[in-house]
Design brief:
Elements: E1 10-17, E2 26-33, E3 37-42, E4 55-63, E5 68-81, E6 87-93, E7 95-98, E8 110-117, H1 120-124, E9 129-133, E10 141-145, E11 152-155, E12 160-174, E13 177-194, H2 196-214, E14 220-227, E15 241-245, H3 265-268, H4 272-281, H5 287-298, H6 304-321, H7 330-342, H8 350-362, H9 368-377, H10 381-388, H11 394-407, H12 419-440, H13 445-454, H14 456-462
Antiparallel strand pairs: 1-2, 1-4, 2-3, 3-6, 4-5, 5-6, 5-7, 7-15, 8-13, 8-14, 9-10, 11-12, 12-13, 14-15
Helix pairs in contact: 5-6, 6-11, 6-12
C-alpha cells in the first residue's frame, strides 16, 4: 500500500457517500494540507446535507485507483445551491483513515499501531549504513549494514509493548550506484483491542516525550493502524490503515542532530525504558496539563501574552493533577467555611453575596503563587539556581505578570514583563515546565542539569538576563 505522509500534501479524486445512503454516491476531491486542514470538495450535495455547520460523523469514499477511505468527525463548511436544487458542498474533515475500515471506525478495534516522528532516527542514534572505500585509486565501495538493537519495553499495567524498529530499502539502483533509504518508527502492540482514540492518545504521548527530549517540537510523519476483530486471530489480519489528521506542529525541523538535542537516546542509556514507562503510566493523570503545555509549545505563532498566560495555566493545572493543593484538611476547612458563610453581614446580598460565597468556597485551595513556589522548591539546588536565576524573585515576577495581563491591575504594571522581556520570560517558563515534566517522569536531575548546559538552544534562553 502507498505510504501517506502527514508532512506532504495529498490531492486525490474519488466517490463519496454516507453509510446510510450507499447508493447515493457523489464525485469529489480530498485535499490534505499539512498543518492547515483536510477538506473534501464535493461536486454535488450529499442527500439531506445542505445546512452549513451540520456534523457528519462518518463519510465513506473510494479514491480513484480503488483505495477506500473513511472520514471521521466532519462538518459542512460550505453549501452552494444551484438551479433545480443541485449544488456543490465543502466538508472539513478532522480525521481520515485510508484503507479498509469498518463503518463504525471510531469504535473499531485495533491491535497495534506504528508511527514515524521527525528527528526520531537522529535522536535514537541509529546509523545502519556506513560506506567506506577500499583504496584511493579504486572505485570499490563496501557498504556495511548494521541492524540496531530494537529494545522491547513492556508496560504491563497498560497491557502494552513498545518497540523501536528500523527498516531500510533500495531507493535507487544502477550498474555502478546503489542508494538506500532508512527510517525508524515506534510500534505499539496491545494485549487487548483498542479504539482509534486510545491509540491516538498513546502515540501523542510518545510524540510529546520525544519533543521534550529533543528540545524542539517534533511532528508525526505517519501513523499506521493494524485493525483486528475481537474474535479474530491477529495474524490473520493483513490490512493496514493510514491515519491522517491536522497537527499542531507547523514547519517542524526534519533533522535536528545529536549535539543540538537536550537528551538524546545514547545519553539516557539504560534509564530510557523506565522513563518511557513512567511517562505513559502518568499520561492519563497529567493529560490536561500536558495538553495545554504541548499545544502552546507547538503553536509557535501565538502572541507572547497568550503564550505566557497559557504556560502559567499549566503551572496550576499540573499541580492540581498531581493531587496537591489545600492549606487545611478538607474536613477542618468545612467547619471554618460554615462559620464564615453564616457570619457574612446581611447587607451583603445578590451577586455580591454570591461572589463572597464563591471566594470562601475556594479559599482553602492553594493560590497560583503558592503552587509555583512549591514547584520551584522541589527542584534540586543547582537545577533551581540555573532555571530561576532572574533579576528579582522568579515566582513573584511571573505571578505579577500573569495577574497584570489577567486583571489589568495598574498597580502591577511596573512589575510585569512587557515586550521582548515577556517573550524571554515565557521561554524560560517553557523550559522550567519541561524540566518539571521530565523530573516527574524520573529523569535524573544531575543528567538533566548537564544536558541543559550542553544544549545550546536551552542554554541561550537561560543566559538571557531578565
Amino acid at each position: 500500500m502507498t505510504t501517506y505522509s502527514m508532512l506532504s500534501e495529498i490531492d486525490a479524486e474519488g466517490r463519496f457517500w454516507l453509510p446510510s445512503q450507499p447508493e447515493s454516491e457523489v464525485r469529489g476531491r480530498l485535499n490534505f494540507t499539512p498543518g492547515q486542514r483536510i477538506v473534501l470538495e464535493l461536486s454535488e450535495q450529499l442527500e439531506g446535507c445542505r445546512q452549513t455547520g451540520r456534523k457528519l460523523p462518518i463519510v465513506l469514499g473510494m479514491l480513484i485507483g480503488g483505495t477506500p477511505l473513511t472520514l471521521l468527525d466532519s462538518f459542512i463548511t460550505g453549501a452552494h445551491c444551484g438551479a433545480g436544487g443541485s449544488g456543490s458542498c465543502e466538508v472539513t474533515v478532522n480525521h481520515a483513515l485510508i484503507g479498509e475500515a469498518s463503518e463504525l471506525a471510531g469504535q473499531q478495534a485495533f491491535g497495534s499501531c506504528r508511527f514515524g516522528l521527525t528527528c526520531l532516527e537522529n535522536w535514537a542514534g541509529l546509523s545502519p549504513i556506513k560506506t567506506t572505500t577500499s583504496g584511493k585509486k579504486r572505485r570499490t565501495y563496501h557498504a556495511v549494514f548494521r541492524f540496531p538493537e530494537a529494545p522491547e519495553i513492556a508496560i504491563d499495567e497498560l497491557g502494552l509493548e513498545v518497540r523501536l524498529e528500523s527498516e531500510f530499502w533500495q531507493q535507487d539502483v544502477s550498474l555502478d550506484h546503489v542508494q538506500w533509504d532508512h527510517r525508524c518508527f515506534v510500534k505499539l502492540s496491545s494485549a487487548r483491542p483498542r479504539t482509534l482514540h486510545d491509540l491516538d492518545l498513546l502515540a501523542f504521548d510518545c510524540q510529546n516525550l520525544l519533543s521534550l527530549l529533543v528540545g524542539q517540537p517534533v511532528a508525526m510523519k505517519e501513523l499506521c493502524l493494524d485493525p483486528v476483530a475481537c474474535d479474530e486471530p491477529r495474524d490473520s489480519v493483513d490490512r493496514e490503515l493510514h491515519s491522517l489528521f491536522v497537527q499542531r506542529v507547523k514547519n517542524p525541523r526534519e533533522n535536528v542532530y545529536l549535539p543540538e538535542m537536550l537528551l538524546p537516546r545514547p545519553g539516557l542509556g539504560a534509564a530510557f525504558p523506565a522513563l518511557l514507562r513512567r511517562w505513559l503510566l502518568r499520561g492519563k493523570r497529567l493529560r490536561t496539563a500536558r495538553n495545554i503545555y504541548f499545544n502552546t509549545v507547538y503553536a509557535n505563532d501565538l502572541p507572547p501574552e497568550f503564550r505566557f498566560l497559557s504556560l502559567m495555566r499549566v503551572v496550576e493545572t499540573y499541580h492540581r493533577c498531581a493531587g496537591r493543593g489545600t492549606y487545611l484538611p478538607k474536613a477542618q476547612y468545612e467547619v471554618l467555611r460554615e462559620k464564615m458563610e453564616t457570619g457574612l453581614p446581611q447587607e451583603i446580598t445578590g451577586d455580591l453575596r454570591q461572589s463572597f460565597l464563591s471566594r470562601i468556597k475556594y479559599a482553602n485551595e492553594y493560590s497560583l503563587r503558592k503552587r509555583l513556589d512549591l514547584l520551584v522548591r522541589q527542584l534540586p539546588a543547582d537545577l533551581k539556581k540555573r532555571l530561576t536565576n532572574m533579576a528579582g524573585n522568579f515566582v513573584n515576577r511571573l505571578v505579577d505578570t500573569r495577574n497584570y495581563f489577567t486583571h489589568y491591575d495598574h498597580e502591577l504594571e511596573d512589575k510585569a514583563y512587557r515586550g521582548i522581556d515577556l517573550h524571554w520570560a515565557a521561554e524560560r517558563l517553557r523550559i522550567f515546565l519541561g524540566v518539571v515534566f521530565l523530573l516527574d517522569a524520573g529523569v535524573d536531575p544531575d543528567i538533566l542539569l548537564e544536558a541543559i548546559e550542553n544544549c545550546w538552544d536551552v542554554k541561550a534562553v537561560l543566559d538571557v538576563e531578565l
